C-alpha cells in the first residue's frame, strides 16, 4: 500500500548562503495493508522528514513514493489533494484548524469532503469525540482554546473519521492520559484490522511495541550510511 524506493532528500537553506543539508538517501520502505511500521532513529535522523515526504509536504529529490496507485514524489498538487481526501490520512502532533469552526464540524469535515451526508458525518464525529472523552458541552465550540491533550484528541478523532486505506501517525499518544491513550491504541488496532497500512512515529515505546509489527530505523538512510 505504501512503497518507497530510493528516496533522497536534501534541504537548501536559501537564507544561509544556499547551504545544502543532505538528510536522506536510498530510503526504501514497504508497508502492506493491515501493517503498522514504526519509524525509529535518533533525534534528527529524519523520521519527520520521511513522514512529510510521504504526505507530500516535502518534495523528495529522488526516488518513488507510491501510496495506493499514486507516486507522491512526482504527483501534481491536485492528485495529492485527492489522495489526502480519499486514501492517505495524517494525524499530526498538533491541531491546525480554521478559527471559529465548532469541534464537531472539525471532526466531521473529512467525511463531508468525501460527500458523506451531513447527518452520518456528524454522527460518526460525535461517536469518536465521545469515545475520546471530549465532553459534549465542548463540541459546539472551536477547539482553538482547548488544552493540549484535548486538541490532540480532536485531531485524532478527525484523523480516524474516514477509514483511510493508509495512515500516518506522528506521536499519536504523546500528551494523553492512560485512559485516552488506551482508546487511541484501540483505534489504531481497529484500523489495522480493517486493512489500513500505517506508518508512525512513537516515542512511547510501550505503545510502539503493542501496535507496530516492525520498526524501520531511518538512520540507515542518512547519506553517510547509504554511501
Ligand atoms: N524544513 C527544513 N529545512 C532545513 N532542514 C530541515 C528541515 N526539516 C528538517 N530538517 C533537517 O533534517 C534533519 C532531520 O530532521 P527530522 O525532523 O526529520 O528528524 P527526526 O528524526 O524527526 O527528529 P526528532 O526525533 O527530533 O523529531 C535535521 O537535521 C533537520 O535539521
From TrEMBL:
GO CC field: plasma membrane
Pfam families, A to Z: ABC_tran (PF00005)
Keywords per UniProt: ATP-binding, Lyase, Nucleotide-binding
NCBIfam families given in the database record: CP_lyasePhnL
GO molecular function: ATP binding; ATP hydrolysis activity; lyase activity; transmembrane transporter activity
UniProt organism field: Antarcticimicrobium luteum
InterPro entries xref list: AAA+_ATPase, ABC_transporter-like_ATP-bd, ABC_transporter-like_CS, ABC_transpr_LolD-like, CP_lyase_PhnL, P-loop_NTPase
SMART domains: AAA (SM00382)
All copies of domain ABC transporter, residue ranges: 2-226
Domain of life according to the entry: Bacteria
Name used for this protein in its record: Phosphonate C-P lyase system protein PhnL
Amino acid at each position: 500500500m505504501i512503497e518507497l524506493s530510493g528516496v533522497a532528500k536534501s534541504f537548501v537553506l536559501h537564507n544561509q548562503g544556499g547551504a545544502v543539508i543532505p538528510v536522506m538517501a536510498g530510503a526504501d520502505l514497504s508497508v502492506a495493508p493491515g501493517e503498522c511500521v514504526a519509524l525509529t532513529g535518533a533525534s534528527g535522523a529524519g523520521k519527520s522528514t520521511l513522514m512529510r515526504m510521504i504526505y507530500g509536504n516535502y518534495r523528495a529529490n529522488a526516488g518513488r513514493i507510491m501510496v495506493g496507485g499514486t507516486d507522491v514524489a512526482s504527483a501534481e498538487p491536485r492528485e495529492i489533494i485527492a489522495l489526502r481526501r480519499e486514501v492517505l490520512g495524517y494525524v499530526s502532533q498538533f491541531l491546525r484548524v480554521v478559527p471559529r469552526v465548532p469541534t464537531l464540524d472539525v471532526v466531521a469535515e473529512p467525511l463531508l469532503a468525501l460527500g458523506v451526508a451531513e447527518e452520518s458525518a456528524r454522527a460518526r464525529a460525535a461517536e469518536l469525540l465521545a469515545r475520546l472523552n471530549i465532553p459534549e458541552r465542548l463540541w459546539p465550540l472551536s477547539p482553538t482554546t482547548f488544552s493540549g491533550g484535548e486538541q490532540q484528541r480532536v485531531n485524532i478523532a478527525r484523523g480516524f473519521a474516514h477509514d483511510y486505506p493508509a495512515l500516518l501517525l506522528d506521536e499519536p499518544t504523546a500528551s494523553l492520559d492512560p485512559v485516552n491513550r488506551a482508546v487511541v491504541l484501540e483505534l489504531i488496532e481497529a484500523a489495522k484490522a480493517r486493512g489500513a497500512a500505517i506508518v508512525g512515529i512513537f516515542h512511547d515505546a510501550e505503545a510502539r511495541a503493542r501496535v507496530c509489527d516492525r520498526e524501520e530505523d531511518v538512520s540507515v538512510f542518512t547519506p553517510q550510511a547509504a554511501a
